[in-house]
Amino acid sequence: MKRKKYIGVFLAAVLILCSCTGCWGSKELTDMVQIIGTGLDNAENGQTKLTVQAGSASTSKSDNKKKSAESQIILYQKTGNGIFDMVRDITHESNRRLFIGHNQCIVFGKEDAQKGVKNQLDFFLRDSEARMDVNILVSDSTAEEILSTQTEDYDMPAVGIKQLLEMQQANAESVSTDLMDFSLALASETTCPVASMIHLSKSNGKPRFVVSGTAVFKKDKLVGTLDEEKTRGYLWAMNKMKNGVVNIQSHSQPVCLEILGSRAAIKPVLQANHHLTVHFPISVKLGIREIKNQDGISYDELSKQLEQDVSHLIQKKISDCFHETQLYGTDIYGVGKLVEEKYPQDWDNIKDKWDTLYRNSIPEVSVEVKVKDSGEISKTYG
């Protein structure tokens, strides 16, 4: 009996020890170089130029202090036909394996995006270490220029780009698209992908990143861009304007309002003759945050006027953006998918001519605006 008891205790101890051994197949971060950002540009003979911004995971042993961000940055560049092959080729220059799990962004140069990005994204979708929440951007020049430039604000350009995109949510003047969103749009029969536009501003001789506007794709090729105003129209329509600022002239005075909330929907209506109308019902709540001069104007009078003015402003932004996408023939809203879901029996007859149907569709925008508060005072004093 005692022998069986000792055997049982021994087996239990072995099992506990085995469960505490950690990951047998794990790799130490100090044995790897972390890819922070990747850039893709068009090269000669139909090839692709890959720019990899990497950061060392090691630290300086002197005084137990970390190396500066600048000394940790490593830039690799390769030209070839396949991303995987080029990444592997970098091992000739590094004694540590590249780890893509911390990649912050994929930047396409403008010429490369115009050529088509589907084949280049295949590597990022297949690799088991790659993340699907990595941001997709298009440079108005080259990806190499973006990833090789250090600014005063950011020592690691790719990390700075990631933080800049997060801050853009407060301004609502640029889209934020990750690899998951982009690839889902690519797989759609009708929905066209969008991505953030990025460029370098060199005012006062000091470079800084600027993220504004939207890159519009037809299938996997860049076909056009939307400026900040049209981008805002897209964000309003797509129910992505949860915060931000609206500046408007009312009673000949500049007024600044804060977006307190917004609800939007897209409702296509397909008639018997296959005439398509796309309804955009929008509901917006605003708060007054700054008025230059309110003399002689009551709060009620001002609020009503602001509600009308902002309603017209949002209607124009949404309509202008929609008409621009019609010129490109790019359904970036997913209207085709909504039509297929709502009218499944008609879809088989119209899907082959969806481009023409979308180009000829009529947008109808209705915006309800409510000014909910005036801040801490109801009128301007002084």
Automatic annotation (TrEMBL):
Keyword match Membrane: yes
Keyword Hydrolase appears in the UniProt entry: no
Residues in Spore germination GerAC-like C-terminal domain copies: 212-375
Signal sequence extent: 1-24
Principal cellular location given in the protein's record: membrane
Topology of the protein relative to the lipid bilayer: Lipid-anchor
Location in or out of the cell: Membrane
Name of the protein in question: Ger(X)C family spore germination protein
InterPro entries: GerAC_N (IPR057336), Spore_GerAC-like (IPR008844), Spore_GerAC-like_C (IPR046953), Spore_GerAC_C_sf (IPR038501)
Family in the record: Belongs to the GerABKC lipoprotein family.
Residue stretches making up the Spore germination protein N-terminal domain: 26-199
Keywords, in A-Z order: Germination, Lipoprotein, Membrane, Palmitate, Signal
